Amino acid sequence: MEHLLTVTIFLPLLTAGVVALLRNESFAKIASVSVSALVFLFSLVLFLKFDFNREGFQFVTKIDWIPPLGISYHLGLDGMAVSLILMTALLFFGVFVWSWRVEDRTVLYISLFLMLETACLGVFSALDFFLFYIFWEGMLIPMYFIIGLWGHERKVYAANKFFIYTFFGSLFLLLGFASVIIYGYFQNGFITFDYFEHLKMEYPLWLQSIAFLLFAIGFAVKIPMFPVHTWLPDAHVEAPTAGSVILAGVLLKMGTFGFVRYSLPLFPEASERYVPLIFILSVIAVIYAAMMAIAQTHIKRLIAYSSISHMGIVTLGTFALDGDALNGAVYMMIAHGLSSAALFFAAGFIYDRIHSYNMDDLGGLARYLPNFATVFMIAGLTSIGLPGLAGFIAEFLVLLGTFKKYPIWAIAAGSGMILGAAYFLYMYKRVMFEEETLPKSRIEKWKSLRDLEIHHIIPFVLILFAAFLLGLYPAPFVEIMNHTARFVLGG
User: Which residues are registered as beta bridge partners of 73?
Assistant: First the structure.
């Protein structure tokens, strides 16, 4: 168990190297599915072995790496991190199964996704600023090429925009790390990148205010928060299905994870001072993005705007500075990861069958694709927070915790959830129903469509089973997430 976390993180990277060296497509597919299944199994063991009654981080590994600079290979998990690692492993396994029939530069495609998996797992595990930043930047290159090589018509534009926005935010994050490291050096006489060493330091308010803004810009771009959100719809529209799934399901969570892991515990006074600003931006994102989603006719662009709206709920819950709201924010990271992944898989399935994301080209599919219609509906209901599914528990906890101190903000955010139901039902009606408006030629074409196949069914079943489990039996998951709330907020 001592090195299980390290093995979980670096096994995909090692496999990527082997796949790239052998350059055999059949081996690459088998290896990716097998290794991602093993990583998921390891992450499940970490999750089940996690003791949420014990304070502090668990599965900790610390090895001196660059001692003169105080840099170490330092990993560890709390309740939020172990939950996000399990979700990440699940989604990557689903992606590799879904991609079983990819034929375009298969070896490179699989190698990039395996490298990306290591970077994502590393971000959620790192307890050293230097190590965290390497993993944080490490995900940028694989995703850039995934969008730029396997995307759609404007893929190069979307990949460049994704890279520029993300790299721009990362520079501010780097300045934020530098500011606290340099301050620590002048205060203590030694350089350290260790997360726990910096937790012991009491930064003055002026430094907290500056560093909070630097960190916030880096995290806000990745979430993305309003007004630095415009890269996301373009990236989703042009990205391949698997790229959209990981982008929405995992990469967006890195920004909100960063706020909880770094901004709140390191800069508590500044966090309180910036609550009004974060609330304003969050509620704007919730309502504005939901209204933009209603206006879309492109399925993936609609789902992208819905992601921006949901991440606004996460940032609202994070900065309500309440245990229930923070639990709900972390729960929403998981719930949105599952629902957005299922929705983007659904959009990808439609494109595979019909070669269009435009609702004007669709309609009446429920009669001819009944199995798909069912999983598409469940994914959407998870997204809009139907009771019995993961999204409801998340939204309920966020609104409950926020309402205690900020009832007006909670009510405003709640209105965005109503809009969420509107845009999903609008999309579902346009895509699945309205058969009477279809020309006969399209109906004849629909009759020959194949419903879900095994490489589609496995990801949908795993994701939707997890959504039901978190919705029907939330107690143990809330307890594990409360492990992080106690650490961040005290109590």
Answer: 63
Rounded CA separation 198/459 (Å): 40
3 state SS of 58: strand
Q: Give residues with Cβ within 8 angstroms of 24, minimum separation 6.
A: 107
List C-alpha distances in Å: 89 to 124, 196, 241, 337, 373: 12, 26, 17, 12, 26
**Residue with the two structure tokens 């961040």:** 488
pLDDT band for position 304 (cuts 50, 70, 90) = very high
Q: Which of 75, 73, 56, 55 lies closest to 64 in space, CA to CA?
A: 73
* Tokens standing for residue 1: 């168990």
pLDDT digits (tens, 9 = 90+) for 320-350: 988 899 999 999 999 999 999 999 999 999 9
- Residue-wise pLDDT for 107-124, tens only, equals 999 999 999 999 999 999
How many residues would you count in the chain? 491
8 A C-beta contact, residue 477 and residue 83: yes
CA distance 401 to 413: 13
Angle at which helices 79-98 and 4-22 cross, to 10°: 20
Phi, psi of 399 (to 5 degrees): -70, -40
CA–CA separation, 357 and 298 (whole Å): 6
CA distance 59 to 57: 7
Is the Cα dihedral 378, 384, 385, 386 positive or negative? Answer: negative
- Beta-carbon contacts of 398 under 8 Å, excluding residues fewer than 6 positions away, are 313, 314, 316, 317, 320, 325, 328, 329, 332, 413
Contacts of 178 (CB under 8 A, 6+ apart): none
User: Is the pLDDT confidence value at 491 over 60?
Assistant: no
Query: Which tokens is 281 given?
Result: 């931006």
CA distance 211 to 181: 11
Across 138-152, 331-345, 383-397, 409-423, least confident range: 409-423
Q: How far apart are CA 336 and CA 473, in angstroms?
A: 17
Q: How confident is the model at residue 36 (pLDDT cuts 50, 70, 90)?
A: very high
Helix and strand tally (H, E) in the chain?
A: 23, 2
Q: What integer pLDDT is reported at residue 443 of this predicted model?
A: 84
Whether the CB-CB separation of 230 and 304 falls below 8 Å is answered with: no
Cβ neighbours of residue 355 closer than 8 Å, sequence gap 6 or more:
none
pLDDT band at 435 (very low <50, low <70, confident <90, very high): confident
